[in-house]
Design goal:
Length: 140
Amino acid sequence: MPVVSVSMPDELIDRLDSHAAAHDYTGRSEVVRESTRALLTEFDDERLEGETLAGVVTVCYDFGTQRVERRVTELRHEHDSHIASNDHSHVAEYCLDLFVIEGDLEVVSGFVGKLRAIEDVETVDYTLVALDSVGQLPDV
Ligand SMILES: [Zn+2]
C-alpha cells in the first residue's frame, strides 16, 4: 500500500490520535482511510438519485477570516440559481453561514464539497429533504 504524506495542524493530529485510541483503531492511518472512504461515499445513496432535494447547509469558520468569507460568498454567487436563502451570523468567535439550497444530488453534494474544500473552514454540516417524497410513506 502506498504511503501518503499529509500535513495537518497539531490540534487535529491530537484529536485523530485520541479518536484512534478510544475506538481501538490500529493507528491514525486506519482512521484516515476510514474517513476517506466515508467522505467519498457520503452521497452514494440510490434513494436520492433523481430526487429534487432541499438542503440546509451550515458553514462555520473563524470570525475575521476574510479570505474564507470571500470564498463562501463566491460559491454562493456561483450557485445562485439553486440558493433559496442565505444568512450570515456571528456566534461566539465564529462566522456561521446558513444556506438553503434546492437541486439534485449533484448540485447539493457539489456545493457541500466545494465549501469543505475551503482552507480554514471549521465545519460544514447539512441535512437533506427529498422534496418529491415529502408526505409519502417509504417503500416496504
Ligand atoms: Zn462574519
